[in-house]
Description:
Number of strands: 17
Oligomer: single chain
Distance between the termini: 43 Å
Helix content: 25-40%
Radius of gyration: 25 Å
Bound molecules: zinc ion
Strand order of the largest sheet: 3-2-1-4-7-8-11-12
Largest sheet: 8 strands, mixed
Amino acid sequence: MNLLLFSLFREKKRRRIEELNENMVVDGGNGDRSDWQGQWDHVKKFLERAGPFTHPDFEPSTESLQFLMDTCKILVIGAGGLGCELLKDLALSGFRHIHVVDMDTIDISNLNRQFLFRPKDVGRPKAEVAADFVNDRVLGCNVVPYPSECIKQFHIVVCGLDSVVARRWMNGMLLSLLIYEDGVLDPSSIIPLIDGGTEGFKGNARVILPGMTACIDCTLELYPPQVHTGILSFCHTPFCPLHRLTFRCNIVLNMSAYCFDGEALDGDDPKHIQWVYQKSLDRAAEFSITGVTYRLTQGVVKRIIPAVASTNAVIAAACATEVFKIATSAYVPLNNYMVFNDVDGLYTYTFEAERKENCSACSQVPQDLQFLPSAKLQEVLDYLTENASLQMKSPAITTTLDGKNKTLYLQTVASIEERTRPNLSKTLKELGLVDGQELAVADVTTPQTVLFKLNFIS
Ligand SMILES: [Zn+2]
């Protein structure tokens, strides 16, 4: 299966090279024009000779490096811990047309691991600074911050994000670009998605061929639900030093509730943290607990999991290697999920995540919703946000009633929220919905509206 997918992508790449040659855009052979001597010798060793690990159909040539340098366009999402590593790895592997997007600005706490940034860059946009740094450092490389809207122009997308919502959105975007002819997927419409994720000492890298292999939403159950469970559930079993400290802090925070002068606790507001810290110190003294610091308090309140530079390096390297393998077709790509964990010793394995038959993002099958006619709209909303394979954030539900589009509930616009809120306490029957009714649901987790079919159970 993997080999088949692989050859499809290679065919797509070959067609692009042919197009390019026809247009005579290439000048000067394999792009050596501005390189220093021997700059690409290490890459050539992989592409200009066969070896025991090369793809069975691999034919050594200078064409692959040429494609990589002159044609292949990569979109990198995220210029943080993973993103900095990715940009460096890709640039040093020969990729030259890299676009990077990240809406964040540089914080002083990033500098220990996001090595493309310096103290003078604090406050500047990450994407811009990262692009400038790589372009200065790697001759001939052209990293562009904030790419144009058109995702179609890219050959491969790499995600180094810490947000599941943003990942799912990009996943949905790539799925929306697929072209089906008579129900058969046109392989040239596939843009592979390489996705990396890290959390402390754990990480994963995966290769997604949209429409062919498991997508982000197919495996949504693997992601921990991102619900706010409050500070106390941060850790139940204190078993390592950090956890013991956290546990202490939790005990300390027990009485502090989660508001400051009536406002919700804001982990970014020093006034709030100082207040919790002071309360914690008082409680700590009462119970003879030591080790409570301002920094620890902030960590607990913000539920910070420390970022580990080496985990980012490992995962980004794995992702960049997969980009290289797919772009050159010289090696068999990962199929399709790698797990890395060095919490205790070092553990890694790979497995093939399977497509979910009724995946709400990639299956093209309308989703069934089973409810009693007497169920309230609120229950439907809760289902959409709480179901492990949907995990929507602020779903907007619309339907067609008497030939007219009707918004049943929409949360993101205050005036519409107010107007539609009474619907939440109405039953589905009271709202005029019937068995088999189609509900269109829009959410930040996907660029496309998801269609659901309402099935009444009795
Ligand atoms: Zn899927």
